[in-house]
Design goal:
The chain has 227 residues and is α/β, with parallel strands linked by helices. It has one domain: Alpha-Beta Barrel (TIM Barrel). It is 40% helix and 17% strand. It is built from nine helices and eight strands. An eight-stranded parallel β-sheet has the order 7-6-5-4-3-2-1-8. Strand 1, helix 2 and strand 2 form a beta-alpha-beta unit. The protein binds pyridoxal-5'-phosphate (PLP). The site of pyridoxal-5'-phosphate has 12 residues, from strand 8 and helix 9.
């Protein structure tokens, strides 16, 4: 695949998503593709945009800011912040008008809400859940989710859209299924049935869609390996 273009890889990812939607009995087009463009140049984003891609994911605050400015002419571009967010960078992410997929603490929620008020905007957020309770991983513990959701809902400048997770790495994709199912169960318990479930990446998007993903975050399969 390394010789193929972004346009070709993007259409093969779209085909994978469409096949998974059909197999899982999901409506065609019900899964949103978040193209993860971290470490890739703005030209790569423009190429995908020219092929109809509108939602892009970034992991690093500095890079998010630079791309937000460099791509300001693309008015309907939607940037999602999917990296670990430190409280002292909340302001920058709000200024870049990004959706925050990695909200994982009351403290970060309060800070984002304050910055959103200052900027006069509402910030769309997903709560990142550490479904497997991995010690080294960020994300809210499943047992702390209910309290965090209550905290976020009390902050009117945040718009809670749903949940996101990054399961433990596993080459056996079937072993990821229970983690995706766990996020879905948490969504069904605490949020609306149609709230966002951001889960699944290049290697495992089919399993995630079968388990109910509404958003898949795909980098390598669209933009190639990162150096
Ligand atoms: C990098 C990244 C992705 C994309 O991973 P690929 O394997 O390149 O598709 C998705 N989600 C998060 C949180 C990431 O950091």
């Amino acid at each position: 695949m390394s010789g193929s273009s972004i346009a070709e890889r993007l259409s093969s990812v779209r085909e994978r998503i469409a096949r998974a939607e059909a197999r899982a009995g999901r409506a065609a087009g019900s899964v949103t593709l978040v193209a993860v463009s971290k470490t890739k140049p703005v030209e790569a984003i423009r190429e995908a945009y020219a092929r109809g891609q509108r939602v892009f994911g970034e992991n690093y605050v500095q890079e998010l800011i630079e791309k937000h400015h460099a791509l300001a002419d693309l008015r309907d571009l939607e940037l999602h912040f999917i990296g670990h967010l430190q409280t002292n960078k909340a302001k920058d992410v709000v200024r870049a008008r990004a959706t925050v997929e990695t909200l994982d603490s009351p403290r970060l929620a309060t800070e984002l809400a304050k910055r959103a008020v200052n900027e006069g905007v509402r910030v769309p957020v997903l709560v990142q859940v550490n479904v497997a309770r991995e010690a080294q991983k960020s994300g809210c513990d499943p047992d702390a989710l209910e309290a965090l959701i209550r905290h976020v809902r009390a902050l009117s400048s945040l718009e809670l859209r749903g949940l996101m997770t990054i399961p433990p790495h596993d080459d056996d994709l079937e072993r990821l299924r229970p983690h995706f199912a766990a996020l879905r169960a948490l969504r069904d318990r605490h949020l609306d049935a149609n709230a966002t479930l951001s889960m699944g990446m290049s290697a495992d998007l089919e399993v995630a869609i079968e388990e109910g993903a509404t958003h898949v975050r795909v980098g390598t399969a669209i933009f190639g390996e990162r150096s």
